[in-house]
Design brief:
The protein contains 25 helices and two strands. The protein is an all-alpha fold and 569 residues long. It has a two-stranded antiparallel ribbon.
Length: 569
């Protein structure tokens, strides 16, 4: 989910929490001025993903999940330490630019951000520690990495994660650890303390970002809707056309079982993020460098824009680097507006210059290595040529831009198709002929014995059990790619937009409930109990009182309506 969506969810949730608390007997409401510190932490959780490039430059973090010391403080790589002052300055520029926009919108009654302004200037990132670094668990990413165990080097994650060992049943390792071992651990120390401390609010905002990403970066909503269609007649009737799509090519995700009993056993998983996903995102950035996509939230008038918010064309070279640095791992269209400030800040350009060559070489290397897996040789070479031109000296001729955009869009579509088809092939493996022959021969030997000796019945039952286990066509537990799984990438398919809207609604409700507990002064155990109602298998969520009616209401109301208009208090 991009930063605009995270800001909208946080704003709506804070206003809903304020309304909830005021409606309680003697309630005083939530502190709306806390939005600035909450949003700082929430925003930094996406901005600090740029540190992954510095990790790659240094090459000293083989385990990307190992980013903090024993005290939980971020440990930056050497390449980032060398430009620490410039990096902090750059992040401050982005933050100040975004908060200037937010403060303007907070003063306009028609804005979603109305009433959430704060002029306190001390609320800003001042160090590498404040900013933090990319941790895959912040976004439920399953990434490649290694850790040393004794004298051997072992992978830390795999295509198939463990599902049965987690305290919350049928949540994958990353899904469980992201919520219960990462986000909740950040919040645990905040609740006993006095409310309103800006640093505590920043930490809370960061944890809320992770909790919000869960629904958009996992298959939770898919399972929720499929189960709801089985258990709630009106949902099944409304969504029947979606479930009757005739072509495998139209499937968005891995095959899901059709029976309710099998759906209940299907685990909640989050997506792999590897070079294929990085390439897909980089191509999107380069495509938008040529012809920007429309911006739904801003066009809707919920966040009013101003003439001064538009990007300057002063330096396309640094602007593109800026977007690669901050947009590769998430769709951060709003921070692009901060680029106009960079022309006055020489130190910021220095940071970009330090990583530009690496970023551009890396982008071409990824295309060279990964695109060949999805494209024919001629298409591959054409794409490499287009990207080399873009990264070197972007063209100004409009016709050429449209041609290049067409080729990039085609390449992105082929990548998604390849990821889907690869997942489908792995999800429906065949049985090796030698294994089948072995069991056929054993069966031939068992049949005569079974006809003459009663005690052979147990041998035959054991044979059937082993054959079912070894020859089963049950799909392996395969993780889908983030590109295929994320809800907000494809706005052209109404059924996927519904999943996206429900993910936003769930994330907003969970955020609101946490904020209610925080400002009410509840014990942390109340937060844990509340979140266990959200962050569990969807079958259990539907079993909670009132949730079937809640899901039916979402499905009925969210067609044709922007999710944030539906969610407004």
């Amino acid at each position: 989910m991009d930063l605009q969506v995270h800001q909208a969810m946080l704003a709506i949730a804070l206003k809903q929490a304020d309304s909830t608390l005021r409606n309680e007997s003697g309630g005083t409401g939530a502190d709306l001025s806390s939005f600035k510190a909450l949003w700082l932490g929430n925003m930094l959780t996406d901005l600090n993903q740029g540190t992954a490039f510095f990790d790659a430059v240094s090459g000293t973090r083989p385990n990307p999940y190992d980013v903090t010391n024993e005290d939980g403080d971020y440990v930056p790589p050497d390449s980032l330490k060398e430009v620490a002052a410039q990096w902090v300055n750059l992040i401050q520029i982005v933050w100040e630019n975004d908060w200037e926009r937010t403060q303007k919108a907070a003063g306009e009654s028609a804005s979603l951000l109305a009433g959430l302004g704060n002029t306190e200037k001390s609320i800003q990132p001042t160090s590498l520690l404040d900013i933090g670094g990319y941790n895959p668990l912040d976004h439920f990413d399953v990434v490649d990495g290694f850790e040393t165990i004794g004298s051997t080097c072992a992978p830390i994650r795999s295509e198939a994660e463990e599902f049965t060992a987690q305290p919350v049943p049928l949540l994958s390792r990353t899904a469980y650890e992201g919520v219960y071992g990462h986000a909740l651990m950040q919040m645990r120390c905040l609740f006993p303390r006095a409310k309103g401390n800006p640093n505590d609010l920043r930490i809370l905002g960061r944890a809320l970002h992770t909790l919000q990403d869960f629904f958009g970066h996992s298959n939770y909503v898919e399972l929720l809707i499929l189960l709801a269609a089985k258990q709630i007649p009106e949902v099944g009737a409304r969504l029947q056309p979606v479930f009757l799509r005739p072509s495998v090519d139209e499937l968005d995700y891995l095959f899901y079982p059709t029976g309710e009993e099998a759906l209940v056993r299907t685990p909640v998983v989050t997506g792999r993020f590897d070079r294929a996903d990085t390439l897909w995102t980089l191509l999107g950035i380069l495509r938008n460098q040529l012809i920007p996509e429309q911006d739904d939230l801003w066009q809707a008038g919920m966040f009013p824009t101003h003439a001064s918010d538009q990007e300057a064309d002063y330096d396309s070279h640094h602007r593109l680097t800026f977007k690669i640095l901050f947009g590769t791992f998430s769709d951060n269209t709003m921070i692009g507006r901060a680029v106009k400030s960079l022309k006055w800040i020489d130190e910021a350009k220095h940071v970009l210059d330090d990583v530009t060559a690496f970023l551009h070489r890396g982008a071409i290397a990824i295309v060279e290595e990964v695109a060949g897996m999805f494209l024919e040789k001629r298409e591959h070479r054409s794409l490499l040529h287009d990207l080399s031109v873009l990264l070197g000296a972007p063209k100004d001729k409009k016709l050429n831009r449209y041609l290049e955009v067409g080729r990039i869009d085609f390449a992105r579509a082929q990548i998604v198709r390849g990821l889907r088809e690869g997942a489908l092939d792995l999800a429906r493996p065949g049985v090796k002929s030698e294994e089948l022959t072995k069991y056929k021969d054993e069966l031939r030997g068992l049949i005569p014995k079974l006809m003459t000796a009663e005690h052979c019945k147990k041998d035959f039952e054991d044979f059937v059990k082993r054959a079912k286990r070894d020859l089963s066509l049950t799909a392996p537990r395969l993780l889908p790619h983030h590109t295929v799984l994320a809800k907000d990438h494809d706005s052209g398919q109404p059924e996927q937009r519904l999943l996206y809207k429900i993910a936003c609604s769930l994330a907003t409700d969970a955020t609101r409930d946490v904020l209610v507990h925080y400002f009410r002064g509840d014990d942390f155990s109340a937060v844990e109990n509340t979140l266990r109602k959200y962050y569990q298998h969807p079958e259990r969520f539907l079993a909670e009182p009132g949730n079937r009616a809640r899901v039916a209401h979402w499905v009925e109301q969210l067609y044709g309506v922007r999710w944030y208009q539906f969610a407004l208090p």
